[in-house]
Write a structure and sequence with these properties.
The complex is a heterodimer. Chain A is an alpha/beta fold. Chain A is 40% helix and 22% strand. By secondary structure, chain B is mostly helical. Classes of the chains: A alpha/beta, B mainly alpha. The structure holds adenosine-5'-diphosphate and magnesium ion. Magnesium ion binds next to helix 3 of chain A.
Chain lengths: 295, 440
């Protein structure tokens, strides 16, 4: 048994005991008006650790005091009714909210013991480390090759043409797109189908060699078959990256994620192992949501 | 309501026809309205086309004859006693000889019967004042001509040119026209001898302005326009694009940027002559830039077209989908890299269109250039941006203002050249757009 496995076991048992404790306090924790997060937000050796993250759009308090860890090589799903702040929280993790006028983020987000919100932190290396895949596939209106090569090029990752080629090919292979596009790398990325475009965007993201990948409803613009392909891909990518995926489809969350976080009106209501969240939610709001009572 | 047919349940309960019946009843009127609406559009376009063709027909009709010029073939004796009395073949001497005298001598020889002074002056008037320069250039080019007798095609005077082109009414009483009966007789005789010919008017494209219509050309104005436009482009495109990129991509949204935006929009509506006054006060009087120069013209025109370019460029930047910026920022591109690699290439067609519209505007602009002295009568072709110059529209203005009959056709011809340039620029705009857009 490797040490990693041992840690995992330990975390597992801790989670189980917490769940038990939560169950014991059943009558207390299920009350819908309660807004403290239920479930274990911390993990052993997190890739990202969020402490008391708040986001304001002007006066509007969109994300309220979120504490959450994102583990290594895990897929964590964010679910919740629309407008609850999932995207907003996700965009804190690579500081994409910086680009929105009037958006203010407080609290700490630690990566490698460094608070990414601290003054003097440059977003360029941060975003190289935390890649993002958007809701609508947004390939650059350039060739497939250019799309994937852009990241390595601007960051100076490849020292020569051969290295760049290697990066482009591996990224496309990892994104499961290589077989489909290897003969037409010079053709526009915008000419691909929706699902292919989204995988191209994933290839573009992983070409930079990130450690965390944020996905904001990556399948909401795709048909079921393309969605299934992407879901399989996410499962494979887990071996290399930590993945945070926002999804409005609970089936998708159940299929691809190991942990699930439920947001409600800006609060992180409940975090737990995906199976537990979907079979045995602790909080009343979580239960209402997954049983389809609202959302 | 118990009927099987779906009926329209009117509030008053009166109208219980089926919806389809009501729609059918109104259909004819609706279709008629549709047709009328289309007709209005068609009429508007037709009206525009009519005006346009009237414009073209009148300009081309008036101006096409300016592209030809009447020449008269005269036997000229290159008299060594006149050209080079000492026989030194010194270019200085050759250059300053009385060549006009040679032309006159040749005319006297052709028409020995004309002896009276007034008549002789009329006879000399057949040939342009510029004919002497033509002879001088020939002699300087080939001194061996001296002492020989040659048949030389010489430019006719503008009034004779008009006569040959049929723009002088021979039936008018002599006092009412500028060409005298004697001159008509001489020209007719020369014509009968095959000594009169209309040729392509190279002078029109190769010469600068002149008081003599037959010697006047648009080269000076063309070169002036070229210098002015190139400088305007070199100044206004980078400044306009940089301003637009900064305002659109980098500037914080606050009071100051709002104020700047409002002011740019207002500047686009300021009458152009005001820019001319500004140029006069600032560039000429304060900075001491030479008046009438393409440089000062370009500075004024830059001020004039900057708002247009900035507004068009901002619109082009706004139309770039934000998802492209997000995508670039998402892989860690800096804002500058995002703009340079992705936003600018996508906005370029729109920016180029705006710029070329601005340039076309600048090419046709007259009023502000009058204020900064580009309306001066300038014969020499400008050799640089500091030389006094004029531009095509101002040249048109000057010629349109001249009394000579021959300047009427020159004016129209110059307008035709200006229009040709505008069409060319628009064609370039279309081609550039296509070229840039092909890169999706
Ligand atoms: N750019 C913005 N400006 C102002 N308010 C915003 C902006 N983006 C999102 N919001 C608000 O923040 C809240 C959370 O939005 P979001 O994170 O997009 O929700 P979700 O992704 O969970 O549907 C919503 O109430 C939304 O109206
Ligand atoms: Mg969202």
């Amino acid at each position: 048994m490797s040490s990693v496995d041992m840690i995992e076991k330990a975390v597992q048992s801790e989670r189980t005991s917490f769940r038990q404790a939560a169950k014991d306090m059943d009558s207390l924790t299920r009350r819908p008006e309660q807004r403290e997060t239920v479930g274990e937000v911390r993990v052993e050796d997190p890739r990202v650790r969020c402490n008391d993250v708040n986001v304001y759009y002007g006066e509007k308090h969109a994300v309220m005091g979120v504490n959450l860890d994102i583990g290594r090589n895990e897929v964590i799903a964010m679910i919740g009714p629309s407008g609850c702040g999932k995207s907003t929280f996700l965009r804190c993790l690579n500081r994409m909210n910086d680009t929105i006028v009037g958006c203010r983020v407080t609290g700490q987000i630690f990566m490698d013991d460094q608070d990414i919100n601290a003054s003097g932190i440059d977003v360029v290396p941060l975003r190289a480390m935390v890649g993002m895949v958007f809701q609508k596939p947004n390939p650059f209106p350039k060739s497939i090759w250019e799309n994937v090569a852009f990241g390595p090029r601007i960051h100076g990752l490849a020292h020569n043409k051969a290295e760049l080629e290697e990066m482009v090919v591996t990224s496309l292979q990892r994104a499961g797109l290589w077989e489909e596009v290897k003969d037409r790398l010079e053709q526009p990325g915008t000419g691909l189908s929706g699902g292919q475009q989204q995988r191209l965007c994933i290839a573009r993201t992983i070409a930079v060699g990130p450690e965390v990948i944020l996905m904001d409803e990556p399948c909401s613009a795709l048909d079921p078959i393309a969605t299934a392909v992407i879901e399989d891909l996410i499962d494979e990518l887990r071996g290399h990256y930590s993945i945070v995926i926002v999804t409005h489809s609970m089936q998708q969350a159940a299929r691809v994620s190991q942990r699930t976080a439920y947001f409600h009106l800006g609060n992180l209501i409940e975090v737990g192992e995906t199976t537990q969240i979907f079979t045995n939610p602790v909080h009343k709001l979580t239960e209402d949501y997954i049983t389809g009572r609202f959302g | 309501m118990n009927s099987q047919k779906p009926t329209r349940d009117g509030a008053d309960g009166m109208d219980s026809r089926r919806t389809i019946e009501i729609v059918r009843a109104g259909l004819r009127r609706r279709q008629a309205a549709e047709k009328r609406f289309r007709l209005y559009g068609l009429l508007a376009i037709l009206l525009g086309l009519v005006f346009l063709s009237v414009l073209f027909v009148s300009i081309v009709g008036n101006g096409y004859s300016a592209f030809a010029q009447t020449y008269v073939r005269l036997p000229v004796y290159f008299d060594a006693a006149v050209i080079d009395p000492e026989g030194t073949r010194d270019p200085e001497t050759l250059g300053s000889a009385d060549y006009a005298g040679l032309v006159k001598a040749s005319l006297r020889e052709m028409f020995p019967a004309v002896t009276e002074r007034g008549e002789r002056r009329a006879l000399y008037g057949i040939i342009s004042n510029g004919a002497g320069f033509e002879l001088r250039d020939r002699v300087l080019g080939d001194p061996a001509l001296i002492g020989t007798r040659q048949d030389v095609w010489l430019v006719a005077d503008d009034e004779i040119d008009m006569l040959v082109k049929g723009r002088v009414d021979r039936t008018l009483p002599e006092l009412d026209r500028r060409v005298k009966d004697d001159q008509i007789g001489w020209v007719d005789r020369l014509d009968a001898e095959g000594r009169v010919e209309k040729r392509f008017n190279t002078n029109f494209f190769l010469a600068g302005d002149s008081r003599d219509p037959e010697l006047a050309g648009i080269r000076g104005a063309l070169v002036g326009s070229l210098y002015t436009l190139l400088l305007t482009l070199a100044l206004s495109f980078p400044i306009g694009v940089a301003a637009a990129v900064y305002l659109e991509e980098f500037a914080p949204r606050n009071r100051i940027t709002d104020l700047i935006e409002v002011n740019i929009n207002n500047l686009a509506a300021v009458p152009s002559i005001v820019f001319g006054l500004l140029g006069l006060a600032v560039f000429i009087n304060f900075f001491g830039i030479p008046r009438s120069s393409p440089l000062v013209g370009a500075l004024v025109l830059t001020l004039l077209v900057l708002p247009t370019i900035i507004i068009a460029s901002r619109a082009a930047l706004k139309s770039v989908p934000p998802s492209i910026r997000e995508a670039a920022l998402g892989v860690g591109a800096s804002p500058m890299q995002t703009v340079i690699y992705h936003v600018l290439p996508l906005a370029m067609p729109g920016m180029l269109t705006g710029t070329i519209i601005g340039m076309a505007h600048a090419l046709g602009e007259t009023a502000p250039l009058l204020m900064i002295g580009m309306v001066a009568f300038i014969v020499s072709i400008p050799a640089g941006v500091f030389d006094p110059a004029t531009v095509l529209p101002v040249q048109i203005f000057l010629w349109a203002d001249s009394p000579e009959r021959a300047f009427v056709e020159k004016t129209s011809a110059a307008i035709a050249v200006l229009l040709a340039f505008l069409i060319l620029m628009n064609a370039v705009a279309v081609i550039l757009r296509k070229r840039f857009e092909r890169r999706w």
